[in-house]
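User: Before I run my own analysis I want an independent prediction to cross-check against. Here's the chain; please return only the structure tokens and, at the end, one sentence I can use as a sanity check.
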Amino acid sequence: MNLKNKILVVLISLFMVSQFLSPKKNQSGLYAVNQFFLDTNTPKEVQILLKEACFDCHSDQTDYPWYNSITPINYWLNSHIKGGKKHFDVSKWFSYSDNRKVHKLEELVEEVKERKMPLKSYTWTHKSAVLDQNQINSLVNWANREILANNSINISIED
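Assistant: Structure tokens:
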């Protein structure tokens, strides 16, 4: 067996062994997501949009695709989830201060309006997460209502 074949055998063997290794799944239940909906007075149509376009990466409830069983894809997906939760984690909504909640909603508005979210790399394989202008408007209007509601609460607390 020549060197090229030996390297190929080693690489295939490493790939096969790596299939038994995977990161911990991001599935802790729906309790925090449902509490977020209650706290933010989220209309049903916006809840559906958030679940389809945002919560796989921004909550503790990821709906994994079939290809998540393939290493190294599962690590790539896990890094997206960790990155998303680092910026905004619905499952930690109640640990945020009122000011931070407002800021996170402001960021949501900005990212969605500028079409930076959901990520293109996510929408390639999740066509239902592609937002049309009406869906963007629904998300933005809901978030802006919540921002105003939280700001008025903060003003009355400070008085």
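Sanity check: The two ends are 81 Å apart (CA to CA).
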